[in-house]
Design the sequence.
């Protein structure tokens, strides 16, 4: 390769790299350098660090090279700053990857949880159910009142009775299971005397579903707990369990092993976040 061919090749490599660097600098999230660009960068780094660039630079300064030769690569500041910018981008990329790995696992779990509508009949271990219920106890709550209770139903006869009543309230055919076969029903109720009870109960429901996902179990929020616990039969259930006071049903967390693939997330709707800065 002649001197002019070498300079022309390095000039083209620099232009390709500069185009990629400009795109990465404008991107909110770095994606890394394509392999072809990495090869160009390696060639430019070797060229700039070696004797060839120094010789070409000296010849250019002496006026030996053709005046019409594209020579951005022989601009000391231009190539130096490009390589320096690449180092900064690589540092940002390493930092971003580290954040993504830890990225946090809680956020990843929040984004990947899905509602399950087909469950296996197998009962999860009681230790897992207890861990999920315990996570619900740590949900944020108004003024620290902790005015929410959870009834963990694993008894099949009671589970089927609740499913039948829920189906009737919902107006579906008698053979429809509104809990989609889930063997565990976690019923969340809020103290009616607590002004934030329904909000607090909703946060408990969220914790239950996220904890289930973290343990590899499926879940879904099923409504009509409010209507159930307005009836005498369900008020008696509370009494039989030793629960006193007035309680309002917030929801059922149907829980179990998913008998289906994890559904894909629907596209997020635009316009739901408004910034005031």
Sequence:
């Amino acid at each position: 390769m002649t001197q002019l061919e070498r300079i022309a090749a390095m000039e083209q490599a620099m232009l390709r790299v500069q185009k990629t660097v400009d795109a990465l600098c404008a991107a909110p999230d770095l994606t890394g350098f394509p392999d072809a660009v990495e090869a160009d960068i390696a060639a430019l780094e070797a060229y700039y660090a070696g004797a060839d660039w120094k010789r070409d630079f000296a010849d250019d300064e002496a006026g030996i090279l053709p005046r019409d030769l594209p020579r951005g690569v022989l601009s000391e500041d231009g190539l130096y700053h490009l390589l320096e910018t690449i180092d900064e981008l690589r540092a940002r990329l390493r930092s971003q990857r580290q954040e993504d790995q830890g990225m946090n696992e809680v956020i990843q779990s929040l984004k990947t949880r899905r509602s399950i509508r087909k469950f296996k009949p197998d009962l999860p271990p009681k230790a897992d159910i207890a861990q999920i219920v315990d996570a619900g106890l740590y949900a944020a709550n108004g003024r620290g009142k902790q005015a929410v209770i959870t009834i963990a139903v694993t008894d099949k006869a009671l589970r089927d009775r609740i499913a039948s009543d829920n189906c009737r309230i919902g107006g579906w055919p008698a053979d429809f299971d509104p809990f989609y076969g889930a063997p565990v029903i976690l019923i969340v109720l809020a103290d009616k005397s607590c002004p934030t009870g329904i909000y607090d109960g909703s946060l408990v429901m969220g914790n239950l579903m996220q904890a289930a996902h973290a343990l590899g179990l499926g879940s879904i929020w099923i409504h009509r707990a409010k209507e159930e616990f307005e009836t005498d039969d369900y008020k008696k259930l509370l009494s039989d369990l030793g629960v006193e006071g007035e309680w309002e049903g917030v929801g059922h967390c149907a829980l179990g092993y998913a008998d289906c693939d994890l559904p894909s997330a629907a596209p997020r709707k635009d316009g739901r976040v408004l910034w005031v800065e």
About this structure: The chain has a mean pLDDT of 93. The chain is about 50% helix and 10% strand.
